[in-house]
Amino acid sequence: MALIVHKYGGTSMGSTERIGLVAKRVAKWARAGHQMVVVPSAMSGETNRLLALAKELAPQRQTKAYARELDMLASTGEQASVALLAIALQAEGMDAVSYTGWQVPIKTDSSFTKARIESIDDARVRADLAAGRVVIITGFQGIDADGNITTLGRGGSDTSAVAVAAAMKADECLIYTDVDGVYTTDPRVVAEARRLNTISFEEMLEMASLGSKVLQTRSVEFAGKYKVPVRVLSSFTPWDIDLQEEAASGTLITIEENVNMEQAVVSGIAFNRDEAKISLLGVPDTPGIAFKILSSVSAANIDVDMIIQNLSKDGKTDFSFTVHRNDYARALDVLQEQVAPALGASEVIGDPKICKVSIVGIGMRSHAGVASKMFESLSAEGINIQMISTSEIKVSVVIDEKYMELAVRALHKAFDLDAEAA
Amino acid sequence: MALIVHKYGGTSMGSTERIGLVAKRVAKWARAGHQMVVVPSAMSGETNRLLALAKELAPQRQTKAYARELDMLASTGEQASVALLAIALQAEGMDAVSYTGWQVPIKTDSSFTKARIESIDDARVRADLAAGRVVIITGFQGIDADGNITTLGRGGSDTSAVAVAAAMKADECLIYTDVDGVYTTDPRVVAEARRLNTISFEEMLEMASLGSKVLQTRSVEFAGKYKVPVRVLSSFTPWDIDLQEEAASGTLITIEENVNMEQAVVSGIAFNRDEAKISLLGVPDTPGIAFKILSSVSAANIDVDMIIQNLSKDGKTDFSFTVHRNDYARALDVLQEQVAPALGASEVIGDPKICKVSIVGIGMRSHAGVASKMFESLSAEGINIQMISTSEIKVSVVIDEKYMELAVRALHKAFDLDAEAA
Description:
2 copies of one chain form a homodimer. By secondary structure, chain A is an alpha/beta fold. The first copy, chain A, has helices spanning about 15-30, 45-55, 65-90, 125-130, 155-165, 200-210, 215-225, 245, 290-300, 330-345, 370-380, 405-415, and strands spanning about 5-10, 35-40, 95-100, 105-110, 115-120, 135, 140-145, 150, 170-175, 200, 230-235, 250-255, 270, 275-285, 305-310, 315-325, 345-350, 355-360, 385-390, 395-400.
C-alpha cells in the first residue's frame, strides 16, 4: 500500500461528466489499496471567467492594490472543484472529503497572486486517510499568517500537488495532463520526437524554464528540492485501464541521476519564441557597467533572461540581453531614454524576431564537445548564431526566428533523439 | 456617525454593472461619515448553477450524505461576490476589505445546509472599520467547531446581515430588496395595498411565516431577539438619491411596539396557497390521539402547519391538519396505509385546492371582535371557512383556493387598509 498524490488539470475537471471519470479513476487507485490524496484544478475556463469579472470592475489594471481580493475571488474556482470531486467520489461509493488550502492548512507568505508555500500541516489529512477516506485538497491556494487567502499564481496547482506530496512523503505524485509525458522536443515541430520514460529533475527544470510547458517550473524545483518522484501522464487514457499499466506510463521525473537507461548525452531540445533581443553598443567598459544597465531595466519591472557581454575593445564593449517579447518596446524605451545617455553608449539596437533554442542533458557533464556539435549542426544548415549561453547541463543559442523549426529538427537528429534511433 | 449594515440580494449583485452601482451607494454612505459593513448575496443564479452541477454528479438526491460538500461548493458564490464588491469599492476610491464567514469568524453549529449561527467575533471587523475601511462579509455561511464551512440555508444572507448587526450593535441593518418595503398585502392582488412605514417584529414574523417572503423568517426572529432595527428598502432607487431620503424610505421593523403611528388594529393581510388540507374522520377520541397521528407524519419528514381537532361526538372525533402542497400525496399515503388502519379511523379525505388567509396585527391584543369582523366580512362575500387558527396577533382561515383574491381584497377593505383610508 502506497501513499499516492494525483493532480488533475482544468480540462480533466472541465465538466461534470469529466469529473465523474476522474472520480472513477481515483476510486480504482483507492480500491487497489492505495491511500489517495487528490489535487484538482478549477474547472477549465473558471479562473479566467472570475478574473474577467474583476477586470470589468477595475479596468485601470491597478492589480497590485486589488491583489488580496483577486486571490479571494480566484480561489473559489478550486474550492468548487474539490467539493464537486468529493461528491462524485461519494456517488461512486467512495468515502471522500474535501479541504481548502486554509483548512489543511497550507501556509504561505503574503505575496498575493504569487504566494510561496511555507509549510503544510498534514495531521488532518493523515487522520482522514487512516479512516479510509480519499482526501481532496484545493490546488493553487493557501493561507497567510494573517488568515488571508493567497494564491500561488498560474499553474500553481502543480506546485500544490508536489508540495503536498513532499510534506506527506508520498511514494509518487502523478500529474495527469493533456500530454502523455515529456518529449525530446515538441512533436508538433519534429514528427520524430519521442516520449522519454525518465528524465532527471535538473533536465526537467531546464526544459520547463526554456518553454516546454508541461509542468510549472516551481513545481519541478519543489520536487527536486524535496526529492518527490513526479510522473507526468495522460488524463486521456480510459479510466479503467489496468492500474499497473497506468502506473508505468508517461514520464517519471527521477531523483536519481543515473537511472537514465537511454544513455543519451542530450535528453531534449527546448525552444522559445517569446523573447526579444536588445543590444547596447559602444558602452565604456568600466566596473559596474552591467549592474547600471540591468538595474534600470529591473526598476521598470522587466525580467531579463540571457545576458552577454562581449570582449572589450578600445575601452568600449557591447552589451546584449533578452527580455520577454511583451516587454520589448518598454525595455527599448528605458535604454534609449535613460541608460544610453547616462552611460554614453553609442547606440541601442534591438530585434524582436528571434528565438532561443536549447539542448538539455545531464550527459553533457561528462561529455566534451557537445556545444561544438550543436554549433556545427546549425552551421551545416546555414543558421547564424546571434547569442550563446551555457550552463552545466544546457546550451542555449539565439537565432533568427524564421530558422526555429529547422534548427530544432536538425539538432533533434544530430543528437540521436529521432524515434528511429531509439 | 453611525455603524450601519447593508445587505444586498442576488439581483443587486447580478452583474458587474450592478455591483458597481452597489459600490457607489455604499461609498455614498461611507463618505457621509458612517462606518459601513456590507453583506452581499451570491450573484443571482450562481448558487443554483453550482447546486445543479452537484445534482448532475449525484442524481440520487442523497443530499444528506453530501451536505458538507454542498456547503463547501455553495459558499463559493458569496465568496466571489464579496471579493468583487471589494474590488468595485477600491476602484471607487474607497478602502475596502472582504471576509468570508470563517475569516470573521461567524461560528455556527454543524448542521450542514441549514446551520445556525452561534457566535460572531467582531474584533477583526472593528479594527478595519476603525482604520476607515468598508468591510464586506459573506452572507449565508459560517464555520463550525471542526473548521468546516457551513451554510445557513436559502435566504441565509438576510440572517447573516442581521446577526452581524446584532453582534456589532449596529445602529440599523438595511436590507435592500426587489420591493420597496413591507405592504399591507401583496399589491399584485390588491391594487390599494399600502406600504407600511413601520411594522413590529412580531407582526413581521407572522407576515413572513405566513408567506410574505420579503425577509427570511429566521432573520426576523434574530432581529427581534437581539433588538436590531431592520429596514427593508428598495435596491432600485438611483444610487445617488439623497441619503436622508434613502435612510427614511422603505419599512422599518421596529423593536418598540408602540411606535405604530397608524393605529390600525390589523397591519396586514397575508396569504399562502402552498398548503393542502387532510382530514381523518371518525377517530376514536382517546388520550394521545393527536400525538399518534402527527408522529407518523413527522416520521415521514413532513411538516404540519395548522392543526384542528373537532369536538368529540359519540366517542369519535375528526382531526384535520395542513401540510405543504408538495407533501400532500405522501402525507395522504401515510395516513391511508398506516395511521387510519392502526387507529380505526373511518375515512381519510384531503383537498389540495385550499389557501390560507391571515390577518396580522399587534392591535388585536387590545381590540376585541377582530376575529368576528373577519368572519363576517368573509361571510358577506359568501366564502365558506374550512379551518380556523388563532394566535395573539393573528387569525388564519383556510378557504377554497378560488376565493383567495376575493377574500384578501374584502379583508383589506374591511380593516381600513386601503390606500384611500390612509
